[in-house]
Amino acid sequence: MAEQADVIVIGMGPGGEAAAARLARSGASVVGIEKNLVGGECPYYGCIPSKMMIRAADSLAEARRVPELAGTSQAVPDFATVAQRIRDEATDDWDDTVAVERFEKAGGRFVRGTARITGPKTVSVDGQDFEASRAILLNTGTDPAVPPIPGLAGTPYWTNREVIAAKDAPESLIVLGGGPIGLELAQAFARFGTRIEVLEALDTLLPLEEPEASRLVEDVLPAEGIGIHTGTRAESIEHDGTAFTVRAGGRTYTAERLLVATGRRVDFDALGLASIGVDTGARSVPTDEHLRIIDGVYAIGDITGHGAFTHVSMYQAGIAASHILGEETAGAEYHAVPRVTFTDPEVGAVGLTERQAREKDLEVATATAQIPSSARGWIHKAGNQGLIKLVADAERGILVGATSAGPTGGEVLSMLTLAVHERTPIRRLREMIYAYPTFHRAVEDALGRLP
Ligand SMILES: Cc1cc2nc3c(=O)[nH]c(=O)nc-3n(C[C@H](O)[C@H](O)[C@H](O)COP(=O)(O)OP(=O)(O)OC[C@H]3O[C@@H](n4cnc5c(N)ncnc54)[C@H](O)[C@@H]3O)c2cc1C
Ligand SMILES: NC(=O)c1ccc[n+]([C@@H]2O[C@H](COP(=O)([O-])OP(=O)(O)OC[C@H]3O[C@@H](n4cnc5c(N)ncnc54)[C@H](O)[C@@H]3O)[C@@H](O)[C@H]2O)c1
């Protein structure tokens, strides 16, 4: 006999955990199923511990900027401090007891196991059956994608899951992939003294972002001693028991450690999505504005393909939970999804890039302003690289996208996110007052350069 519940939540990433708790608190009977750790990738292997490493590494970089600005300094890196912080404060040593108890206190029933959807209302967890009267909510996230490079399988390579648990900064590290994971961690470890080589298959770093942002990180990272090799696809990999050797583009790279950060994968087959008519070969599941795949089955988070970010997962969780509860709720909108890569300078962006806007046949106008030439950037001096790029739909007189890269690029992005989200007329953005001398005054400068 299948165990009955109002709602079954499969996968408790950030959004699944939030939605499950809210639904349980509202009085619904909720079964939450998680095969690993409640909270998902973000707190245990992703955002939070990686940002703790970055915070620690950035403090070293700031200390090294003292001679240019304020005298002398000596920073002696010790990775043990942040490794311990990740254990004590971020991951509880990869133990989710507190999160499970929080869910149970909210009234939920927690089941540890691997769930498979068997029909529009039914779920099987390692042989135990469950039936949902109201909804099934999927929040199963992604796993690291490991390319089939000859020699790689079977070696002790790292993905984001192992690198986050490192107790020491290795002497040397090869990073496969110049996306957000690869670059954030490459810079963080470099600042702790690790010799880094980044191998990116495409011709630019951060290939999904504006070329100006890519060029910025391609300038900044080598200046810190990081080896950047774009257009470089690994052809073979060996591990001799102590070191990795990667062959690519006629060259050989050797390092103590190898980090594979080449994107993410999903296994919709294993999740049983064929049983509700989903094409299991697709990279994401199609959902309507209230996150339904079909009536009664919802999906949120990375698997929906609207940006693999915690804030998207949480945003969708709110909408899906409200809809399941029968509350009046606005549908999801994705025209102003913000994203920040936490390199130093941070690379923030929202909405469309120039290329995406042109592909949509918009009447595109763009403008850029350089942070070092703004008053605040000039004052800031050491570590002041950055830019604002605006992408406007000239016909409608609004911004449809923007990039904010700089020392606080992710924070400056907030005003641009609001402008794109609200479709604020450019005329009104030009009429407002920008505090002097802030980094965000560069937005005013860029607005003045739009035709
Ligand atoms: C190194 C790194 C850094 C990142 N930094 C940031 C950042 O700074 N900002 C940001 O917004 N995002 C960041 N992300 C992305 C972020 O972690 C994810 O977008 C976020 O976790 C949301 O994912 P999700 O909600 O889809 O689920 P996930 O967090 O992926 O969780 C899904 C859960 O489902 C479980 N599960 C899967 N299948 C089953 C099954 N069949 N049965 C039971 N349970 C199952 C998994 O065990 C997992 O716990 C980062 C990611 C990485 C890897
Ligand atoms: N700050 C943040 O918000 C943050 C940080 C980290 C990750 N994330 C999320 O996690 C997702 C995954 O991050 P990611 O960096 O792994 O993925 P990604 O897909 O963004 O980047 C992977 C990179 O690896 C390259 N690549 C693929 N195969 C390769 C190969 N064989 N050799 C060399 N390079 C190869 C790709 O061209 C790409 O540039 C991101 O899309 C992002 O949404 C977010």
Automatic annotation (TrEMBL):
UniProt similarity note: Belongs to the class-I pyridine nucleotide-disulfide oxidoreductase family.
Identification of the protein by name: NAD(P)/FAD-dependent oxidoreductase
Residues in FAD/NAD(P)-binding domain copies: 6-317
Needed co-factor(s): FAD
Record flagged with keyword Phosphoprotein: no
Protein's organism: Sinomonas terrae
Family matches, as Pfam families: Pyr_redox_2, Pyr_redox_dim
Keyword check for Protein transport: no
Domain Pyridine nucleotide-disulphide oxidoreductase dimerisation residues, every copy: 337-446
Sorted UniProt keywords: FAD, Flavoprotein
Top-level taxon of the source organism: Bacteria
